[in-house]
Amino acid sequence: MKRVALSTLSLALLGVTGMAHAQSSVTLYGLIDESIQYAHNTVDGSGKNANQVGLVGGNLQGPRFGLKGTEDLGAGLKAIFQLENGFDVNTGKLGQGSRMFGRQAFVGLTGDQWGTVTLGRQYDPVVDMVQPLTGDNYFGSTFATPGDVDNNDNSSRTSSAIKYTSPVWGGFQFEGMYALGGVAGATGSGQTWSGAATYSTGPFSVAAGYFRADNSSSATTRAGSFVGTSDGTIENQVSSGYIAAKSIGIASVAVQYVAGPFTANLRYSNAQYKPDAISGFGSTEKYNVGGAYLGYQATPAMLVGLGYVYTKASGDTSATYHQVSLGGDYNLSKRTDIYLVGAYQHASGNQRVILSDGTSIVQTAGAAIGSYNYNSATSSQELVSLGIRHKF
């Protein structure tokens, strides 16, 4: 992404032992992703299926603007920060629960020899290292897991987090993160922890990691939302019945190989939504997810891709989801591209949902593509988006 530097400040400080020089910079950046979108088989206000056409942003990437900066502290050490806002391009409203800087907000120190430590609201290590080796990295939400049950589409971010990122040693790198729940007398309430590692050599890359988020231990604060240091991974009816889970645990692994104009990757994840006495369901819901992606760089400006995601639920319910996605992206310039993406999904079995009055029930599984909030009253759903993305 091209960044536009607003200013570069050089400060000369006269000390007792001589002259020290510090370089600092602040960069403004962002992107806007907007599309005309058609969805077939979405539930209308009366609970019946209908077609929907509208403007929808954030198919390939969520709209955002941000500030990031560095200050050279000398001896290979730098102070860093990043503030990143998410917004709805069609309404101008703040995203990520109406947070001012809901995407990222952190400060830290980085050194060439020992790595990076950051503190604040951040992506977890699985998002940082495993997600880039999946179809979602290239074509976004339309290629993501139904309901984003495994956080493949970055639905969850983590607040109050301490994260360490190692240097790269011969192609190997790892990250670890812990977020403090901050509840007096209940250290584990709402805590999050995660770790991941990646290895790259030539055209081959592999990454694996684990993410664990605990919900609030209070029945009052937990009602109707996932309340902890992480946002939770609830996007549509595929996973909505587990918003009151005691905890979410996600293990993920992905491999990728690049051969000339072709990029191929495979991924697997196991997501578990565990209950307690106030969850509203009795057995752990497990989602086993397998995904494949093949991309072809047809020209320097044009990328086409094909994706498939298989999702199998077990434990509390027994739903199965098959999703096939297609995409094409064409660069008009280094900063502006146009795209066409689409997906088809078929669902079978049963799924748990929460009704508007708060009642939790098990019903026949309805389709719901990727991480979109389109629910269907039938077993199939189709989605097509024609869009433009501009980066600055």
Count of spatially separate domains: 1
**Helix-strand pattern:** EEEEEEEHHEEEEHEEEEEEEEE
Task: Quote the CATH topology.
Answer: Porin
CATH homologous superfamily heading: Porin
Query: Helix/strand-derived class?
Result: mainly beta
Q: Gyration radius, to the nearest Å?
A: 22 Å
Poorly predicted regions are 1-21
Could you estimate the helical fraction of the residues in percent? under 10%
How is this fold's topology laid out?
Blueprint: E1 4-15, E2 18-43, E3 49-57, E4 64-74, E5 77-86, E6 104-111, E7 115-122, H1 125-129, H2 136-139, E8 158-165, E9 172-179, E10 192-201, E11 204-214, H3 219-222, E12 247-259, E13 262-274, E14 285-299, E15 302-314, E16 320-331, E17 336-348, E18 350-354, E19 360-364, E20 380-391
Antiparallel strand pairs: 1-2, 2-3, 2-4, 2-20, 4-5, 5-6, 6-7, 7-8, 8-9, 9-10, 10-11, 11-12, 12-13, 13-14, 14-15, 15-16, 16-17, 17-20, 18-19
